[in-house]
Amino acid sequence: MSESAYEISDIKFNEDDDGDKTEKVTEQTEQTNQTEQTEQIEVENAEVSEEEDETEPEDTGEFDIRERLKEKKNEIKKLNEELEQKSEEYDVLYDKYLRMTAEYDNFRKRTAKEKEGIYSDSVIDVLKNILPVLDNVERAVQFADSSEPEQVAEGLRMIYAQFMNALSKIGVEEILAAGEKFNPEIHNAVFHEEDEEQPDNTVTDVLQKGYIKNDKVIRPAIVKVVN
């Protein structure tokens, strides 16, 4: 081969080497660019992650506040419902109280009126039995001066018997005292004497008769007692 042929071959070879170099440089540049882009993306992702990390507590705090407000609203609603229920119960109880008060007041007035009526009826029943005695006393007084003493005495004995009968009709009885053992519940001792023939605490004399109705003492008998 001629020298010119070698030169051409060398030139071509050199050209091929330059092309490989260029391709390599291009590949390295692209790799560098990709690496830089990857690093930039990673940096951006890291920044975004940091921002998200910074904002997450704020979002969590707001969520907690909303939840607490919701709970408080539910508590207030529940309390209002309970208050309304208690208010209704109070109204019912207060109404019952007013009714019971009115009924008791009516009962008290009615009982007082009935008691007064019973008392009046009792007094009338007593007077019905006593008034005839009073009538006889008036007649005795009218004829006292013109009548004989024996007649007056007989009239008084009749009036006394009539009066005792009137007392018996209304349930009043004379308290037994003379010769009985002293009983402080029905006897009132105002004198004491010594008597060897009588047992101790024996009523020897009645100074004023006592009367009793059923088990209730109207007045005790005033008596003299042996010590």
CATH homologous superfamily placement of the domain at 173-227: Head domain of nucleotide exchange factor GrpE
The helicity comes to over 70%
Secondary-structure element order, N to C: HHEEEEEE
CATH class of the domain at 173-227: Mainly Beta
Kindly state the mean pLDDT as a whole number? 78
Radius of gyration: 65 Å
CATH topology of the domain at 173-227: Nucleotide Exchange Factor Grpe, Chain A, domain 2
Regions with pLDDT < 50 over 5+ consecutive residues?
A: 1-19
| First and last CA, distance | 188 Å
Q: Tell me which CATH architecture of the domain at 173-227 applies here.
A: Roll
Structural class, from helix and strand content? alpha+beta
Biggest β-sheet description = 3 strands, antiparallel
Number of helices: 2
Number of strand elements: 6
Q: Which shape, going by the Cα principal axes?
A: rod-shaped
Could you list some keywords that capture this structure?
13% strand, alpha+beta, 227 residues, three-stranded mixed beta sheet, Nucleotide Exchange Factor Grpe, Chain A, domain 2
Characterise the protein shown here.
This protein is an alpha+beta fold and about 230 residues long. It has a domain at about 175-225: Head domain of nucleotide exchange factor GrpE (Nucleotide Exchange Factor Grpe, Chain A, domain 2, Roll), CATH 2.30.22.10. It has two helices and six strands. It has helices at about 5-140, 150-170, and strands spanning about 170-175, 185-195, 200-210, 210-215, 215-220, 220-225. It has a three-stranded antiparallel β-sheet. Helix 1 packs antiparallel against helix 2. The protein is rod-shaped.
